């Protein structure tokens, strides 16, 4: 287009065009605000990471990576290691998953598959949602006053009597310790385990079930050899997301684990987990190194949970995304 | 499993052992679902029975806590604290979260949007105590003292992913024909978004905000090193402040019956508060949908 034509065509500034220009600039402003909000969450994420490391720095510089393998947690001599807390976190989470995995899977199969007692589905789904909404401090309060005496007087003596030849069920039982904390965690991760596995099982194509039943398999055989193999990846994701929740649970565990930094084979013994050390000792921590060691535990905890969660999200996402489901 | 006709009902019988295994598995599944539902009932029952007497004690709603060993006292400080901390947190989180949700739905079909979604998912999975550390470093360390505001900041970040995902989901569900109708009438995109799409999706956004508030009100770990707790009735957000969750945590661990009773009563109050917020959210959705 020649400049001459452009000059000739160039219209006088009409009211309409200026209005249009104003509208378009309004769009630009709004888009900029929206992108600004998106940038804000990226900024928060960066600050979040930095904020985790800053208060931990005195301990990170003093103990370095040896922090992960040291068994000492001695505020008096200012020697700190994360191993007892990592041990407690792993043990309690493992107990929680051992309990919550079979129960959660069974409940999910009921909600997604079982056609008997159909009228119970609504109330049960509601009850599980309710459990997910109960604050963890309330569960902790209940566990502290109701569950620990029950464990001390009934469950622990029973286990000692029947399974006492195993090293896990020996020693004196106070009611506070790894086992009680694991059971509390199991109750707390059940809702997420059930809800996620239910969704995964529902995503199994109906034609597969019908094919299996048409071949003469019973419902149990269909579950075992068709539904569970198909849903395996997604259920693994659900377990890992439950694990992520169990690892980071703070208050309820702090109230029942007994709070003692030790590594023992007995599940009746008092212990510690990563978040419960932080919650329990924060008010009494004096000095940069002690406080720093607590926040160093926080860094360890966050790194572990991020790792577990990212793997879990990838698994669940791979299973429920439509491209892979149809392939 | 009456949904599918099993073999014996259509005339070809399974070998006995297979039928037995099938029945056994069916029984186990029912057992699992009952075991999963029991804790809820037991828990709520205990909270109700142990909490009611404390709640009916005169002064529970109107007094500050008495010193340890002195009978009586209430949790007014904690009620004010929970409402104020969560209130300020919501003021911070709801507008930002809604705006990010609008971004994700209207402009976020790209790499930036996916990054934001990924970060939001990572935040959802983080232990709540990590948000406390965030509030501690960002506000407490810079202002040199504990405050309700630092707790609000920590809870705001905790609420953000819930709100933005709810907003995105609600906005995506708005039919595109509404957007096209608005644009065809000559309205700019920002007015279409704010005056047509957002009002149509308001139910979902409000629900997300209410659910986030319910979750924040129950949190304890993020408050430990931010709000810190305060037995005096305090309304200044720049000062340390009590909260219902902190009252429950601290009172449970002291050997005074009146304080323990207060912990149960505070637990009942917190559960009622959280449940009411949840129910409100559901009712709101239903009313909007109609």
What does this structure look like?
The complex is a heterodimer of chains A (327) and B (290). Chain A is mainly α and 327 residues long. Chain A is 73% helix and 1% strand. Chain A has a two-stranded antiparallel ribbon with strand order 1-2. In chain A, a hairpin with a 4-residue loop joins strand 1 and strand 2. In chain A, helix 4 packs across helix 11, helix 7 crosses helix 9 and helix 11 packs antiparallel against helix 12. Chain A is flat. The N terminus and C terminus of chain A are likely disordered. In chain B, helix 8 runs antiparallel to helix 11. Chain B has 290 residues and is mainly alpha-helical. The N terminus of chain B is likely disordered. In chain B, 73% of the residues lie in helices and 0% in strands. Chain B has eleven helices and no strands. Chain B is globular and about 70 Å long. The chains are: A mainly alpha (327), B mainly alpha (290). Chains A and B meet through helix 2, helix 4, helix 5, helix 6 and helix 7 of A and helix 1, helix 2, helix 3, helix 4 and helix 5 of B.
